[in-house]
Structures are given as C-alpha cells and as structure tokens.
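Me: I hope this is not a bother. Any chance you could explain this protein sequence and its structure tokens? It all follows right here:
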Amino acid sequence: MSSSNDGIQFPLHGDTQKISTSETGKAIIAEALSIVDHQISQQTLNEKNWRKQYPRYFKALVAQGIRDNNSPITIAKQGLHKAQHSFEFYRDGQRYLLKDLMQIPAIEKLNTYAFQGESQAEPEWYIPYHGQKLQGQSLLDQIDLWLKKGIIEPSHAEALRAVNAHPEWFDLSNRTMVLFGAASEAGPLTWLSKWKANIVAVDLPNPKVWEKILTTVKNGNATLYAPCTEAIAENASIEQLKDKLGANLLTQTPEIAHWLANNPHKLDLAAIAYLDGEKHVRVSMAMDSIMQFVSEQKPDTSLMYMCTPTDVYAVPEEVIQASTEKFRSRNALHKNIAKGISALTLQKFFKHNSQHLISSENGQSYGIADCLVVEQGPNYALAKRIQQWRATLARHQGQTVSINIAPSTTTHSVTKNPLLKAAFNGASLFDVEAFKPETTNAIMAALWIHDLQNPKSVAHPETQLDHPLELMMSGANHGGLWRVAYLARTALPFAAIYGFASDKLPIDKMFRKNG
C-alpha cells in the first residue's frame, strides 16, 4: 500500500532530519558552479536568504557558461550529477538514491492500451489569435509584426515561416511522440491529435485528466497509447477507460521508464509536466531520470523541452543593443515618471536593464537577459534549470534536442497568482505580450515539428553552433521580455499595478513614445 512518502522526494538534511528545498537547491547550484567559479560556489552555499537572492546565482551560471564552450557542459554535468545523488525515492519503506532508481526490485510491468481517433481529416495548422485563424499570408504578416515589435527573435520567425511553407511536415504518422504531462494546458496534445501522430500519453490516473485526453484524441486522426496496470478489453468506452488509464511520474518512475524503453519505435520525449511549488522540481527530476534511462537504452531518442521566458539566458549582442536603445529612446514624460517612481521606491522600480557584454573564447560577445521573477521562487527556477542542463548535455552527446522559449501564457497555473495575472494584464505597457494558451499551443507545437522535420534546425547535433548556449537562444518567443528597457522584475510590480486598474488609468498612452 502506497503512502504520501512514496516516490521521489527531497532529501532529509543533517541533524534536523527535515526536508529543506532551499538547502537542496543551494547545494545543486553550488555544485554546478564549483569547477567554473569556486568563489561564487561557496557564496551560494553560504547564502542566508536564498528565496530572495537566488537570481544572483542563477545569473552566475549563465555568466560563467558564456566564457567558453566547455563551461556549459561542465555546469550541466556537475548540476545533474549532484541532483541525481541528492533526491531520494521511497517504496515499501525502503529509501533509494535517485541515481539507483532503475535498479530497484519488483518493478511492475505496465500494459499499453491503444485508442484510435475517429477523424479522417488531413493534417492542418494555423494559429488562433484574437479570434482569427492565422494561415498563409495573414500568418506571415503577423510574424513580421511580432518580429518588428521585438516579441519574437528572428530565428523564431524563420521557423514559423518554414513550417508554413512545408505543410507536409505535419503528417506525423511515422513518429511516436511521448508527452509527460499529456493534459498540460500549454502542451501540444490538441495539435498532435490533428496530425496523425502516434501519441504516448503519460499523466496521472485521474478520470478528469483522461476524459480530456481521450476526448481530444477521439476528435482527431491520431492514435493514443496509454499506460495501465491491468488488461482492458478492446473497444472500451471513454467512460470505462478514464478510470483505468494513467501512471504517476513521481511514484511509478521506474515503471514508466522501462515501459518506454521496451517500446519498439523511435521515440520523441517531451518534458511538459508541471506541478506547483516543490513538486515541480520533483516531477522535473522524474522526467529527467526517465529521459536519461530511455536515451541510454534507445540512443535514437529525441528530447523536447519548453522554456519559460521568466528565466535568465545568454542572448546575442544585438538583443542587448536593442534593450539599451529602447531605454535611450523613451520620451521625456516616460523618463520623468520612471525616474520619479524609481526614486520614491528606493530604486526598486524601473531599474535600468544595464548589461555588460561577456566575451567568449569563440570570438563573439553575448549578453544576459535576466527575466527571473522572484515571486515564482527558486524551486521553479531550479526545475527549469535542470531541464536546460539535460538539453545542453544531451545535444553535446549527440542527441536531437528541441528546446524553445515559449511566451508568457495566461494558463490557469499562472493566472491563479494574482500578481502575475495583473502583471500580464499590464504587460503591454512595456511592449511585452502575454499569449492565450491556444495561441501558445499552436506556436510551440509547430516549433517542435520544425525542429524534428527541418534537418537544418539547431535541434540536430549535426547543425553547428558557435556556442552550446545558442541552443536556447535559437527560436525564442519571449514575448518581448528580452528587449524591455528595464530589469524585468523591477517593472513587473508597476505592470501589475497598471493591470489591476488598466481600464481607469491613462498611463499606457503617457508611457508610449509619441509617434
């Protein structure tokens, strides 16, 4: 019989024998930095206010990673090694280190249930946007507009244009695509279900979750393969199936890994599961353990991740120049209001996004886009960093890896935070765009297909990169966050204030540069 302690857990610390997510996070980041910068590594371990100061150390990871091509690989190896040796897995009262997870005894075999969609429609792609279905020329025009406004990067625009020009790429009948967290609001399930994909869906054994997944697939032309612990009769109804399908990433981690490793097809694994708080770190570790194991057993496996724009990234020099120019070109009223509010708040609002370029051994200079939002917390940042590390290391080792920055999206998990919801409502004040889930879904599903189907995409290790961190730079749709004039988290509170009362305040017009 399982208990709440079963599955992947943060480790117990020291004499207290209590869980401390902060101590674990500090230890992992410190270990990641230990070889590239011993001093900042020690400072990380000694940090007393981790929940407020963590952005400094995540920025250090990027700064040190920029300096040469080996550093991002070293950082990823060290960080992942420490994480695998820190987290624990409990089953039947026994404790195991996560690194030993796949060798635990009595791993149960999962069954597979196949479910066929009923549609005969051919694959189609468009972007739902403000009540429109963007296709063809209207889509190309919108891509140009997003690019002009700095919402997306040129490489993202190129990818969208490429998939628009190659509708044949959307026939996925020859691909087997694994979705960890298949029902995720920001995930690609709806689109894969329209593209004849073979979808391996991994999500919690929850009737509501599986009713959503099954109904989505039924209305499309794809084939679903779902895990289950018992044999199920063919042609079972959705009403019967929704209570029998599913597997828990946190507690059935080795079962899922072995089940996938035994799949006879080449797999495309997508790490899109999300949980709140410290559970997000644990589910990221679960996905990472499974993806590592399956990749070892099936070396032709590809990996997919979606990054958050509210993180810290190395960026091309041109992005920093654009941000600096935006700061310089503010109109007089904008400057005076920002200066006054900054003074009143003791520099907490409207801090200049000043950046020093960092020279790399490859002869190029890169900047840092620090868009971390303190309110999201260090656990969220750690969960996403673990994914970046695995992506960086896997591609270095020869795997195909699709990892793209998705725009800020008004999903339920985001908008239930009142501050973030209000900030998104006021984001346009700073030329930042937050997308609705259906728009993000269409865009990011297409980016994944582009990365898999276009042999020239940076996802393929045969495509030469000047620096490993360019893997995350390419294809970015940050919604404008990279190019704002201010340090993002110092503009966020004012954006939130504006968002709370956006229909009453004329600040939007005052802040925009006169045309």
